[in-house]
Amino acid sequence: MVCSMTGFGSGECSFDCGKITVEIKGVNHRFLEITSHMPRVLQSLEEPLKSMLREKIKRGKIDVFITFAEKCAGNPIIKVDKDLGLSYYNSLVALAEVCGLTPPEDIQQVASFPGVICEEKSQWDFDVLWQAGLLPALTDAVSAMMQMRSAEGAHLAADIRQKLVEISNAVERIEAEAPGVVSDYQARLKERITTMLEQAGAGLVGLDDARLAAEVAIFADKCAIDEELTRLHSHIKQFDQTLAAGKNGEAIGRKLDFILQEMNRETNTIGSKTNSLVISELVIEIKSELEKVREQIQNIE
């Protein structure tokens, strides 16, 4: 399947520790870039998350948004460090005596010092968080996104194939026009020479057919586009084969981009060699279709 790089998916999983929700979205990018946004308690699972995504996705900018509704979040465990609190209090009493002030009587003042009262962190089994919570939710989200990417990719592939047909048809029309370029040049060259001789009052002097043939041969060599047309046909076939390889899940975007550059190169060479108005118009038509294809493959994985 040809995959677009644009897609969105979501998934959620409820388990003993709570509920994990995952949303994932992908957009165009030259390489694979994964950014995760998750609660601190799950950050140790970032690497297995990215490793799983790398197995499924080859290109694109991927953003993953994760929320974790903990079941125990409403019952925090409060820990009091009595020794630390007493040490703070004794220090305040000693300082009050030195300054001639009344020792503190408000316990809140002592409790406000760092470390005296704190919320004890929950001890999580990260294997459980991954296997029972995050992985199932992530799997569902990735599956939904891949379905969207595949559907979009199928539309892109169909549109690109239609443009390839139009490009191939234009190339065939250029092939049909190419032989007439030389014969047309020969007729126009002979006509110009005849006119020049007549204007010079030398109409009785015959044309040197051998010299004329040599000039035509030189022109034919310079304007020959057979090799460019052959390579262009080959590139079109290779492009179509690469597009078909996407059905096997291969990442084909960068290869398609390279082949397209070669197709553009051959088309430009044909345009620079010809002085035929018909062929020049066909070259413009091909370049226009190639640009449309280039825009499309920017979104193919």
Features:
single chain; 301 residues; alpha+beta; four-stranded mixed beta sheet; two-stranded antiparallel sheet; 6 strands; 61% helix; 15% strand; elongated
Quick structural overview:
With 301 residues, this protein is an alpha+beta fold. The chain is 61% helix and 15% strand. The longest helix is centred in the middle third of the chain and has 74 residues, at 126-199.
Could you characterize the architecture of this molecule?
With 301 residues, this protein is an alpha+beta fold. The chain has helices at 46-56, 82-99, 107-111, 126-199, 209-223, 226-245, 253-273, 277-297, and strands at residues 7-15, 18-27, 32-37, 60-70, 77-80, 117-120. The strands form two sheets. It has a four-stranded mixed sheet with strand order 1-2-4-3. Strands 5-6 form a two-stranded antiparallel ribbon. Helix 6 runs antiparallel to helix 7 and helix 7 packs antiparallel against helix 8 (277-297). The radius of gyration is 37 Å and the shape is elongated. The N and C termini lie close together (10 Å). The model has no long low-confidence stretch (mean pLDDT 86).
